[in-house]
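Hi all, a correction to my earlier message: I attached the wrong file for Ribose transport system substrate-binding protein. Here's the right sequence:
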Amino acid sequence: MSIEKSDNGLGRRDLLKLSAAAGVAVAGASLIGQKPVFATEELSLKGKRIAISATGTDHFFDLQAYNAQIEEVKRLGGEPIAVDAGRNDGKLVSQLQTLIAQKPDAIVQILGTLSVIDPWLKKARDAGIPVLTVDVGSTNSINNTTSDNWGIGKDLALQLVSDIGGEGNIVVFNGFYGVTPCAIRYDQLVNVVKYFPKVKILQPELRDVIPNTVQDAFTQITAILNKYPEKGSIKAIWSAWDIPQLGATQALAAAGRTEIRTYGVDGSPEVLQLIADPNSPAGADVAQQPAEIGRTAIRNVAKLLAGQTLPRETYVPALLANKANVGEVTKKLGIG
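and the right structure:
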């Protein structure tokens, strides 16, 4: 999407009207390649205590969103109460319990398995604490700030299918279907593939893990390559985020199987560097804007506390980076 027009030719004003009618919003300060631009009506969180609950901060997306939220709360005059569960579900539940007991003016939850966090998001709302989320599809969230994961999943799947010529076996990591964005991206892959009968998802699907994601993906892909030693027997490897993609790409390079392409989501700098390498098997990665997603979520908190009505979801644009355009994408995102 450009600043003035979307890919379908709609102007930004038209896009905003359509989005509002659908109960979503396009973040006003999320234009790709631009520094944050804030509304003329300055928002404030003065005197407000805003809780920020992160599932973990070991991944590029999570850390960028988390730090940006803390900075934005401070910029708007509020007090951030920021906690990181370190990818431990038990600790995540405990930190949500603690935050609810502290009665902040709002809670923002960054990611998390819905079955784990949703009961506690409900408890927060029942306690009269507004709940907003980042990448969490919960009915207990007033507003969820995210990328358009339906579009991300479709675009990545179409890129993969195009690159392999519409036929061949693909390996899929599907370890986090309980995390809303991962589920949406996976479902979109399946929706696209069903229209290409010569494309087959190999079974059983692989399960990516946390922690040690890169090493585990490397090990699993090495084992798959031993099972399918002939060139052409596997065409691509897909994952819902790009850290398994990193491990898979390393395994392909180590085995000399660079004819296989890898695909993922998030835009981690190390993966974009691999895509930029013409000799690397990294094929494409959808680059999100995690810092802008974080800032937007906090601005939505300020709007809510000021009495404004929020849409159900606020979308921040993302860009598909492939071998042909990765230099342009990284330049636009300011991470090249």
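Sorry for the mix-up. The chain is about 45% helix and 15% strand.
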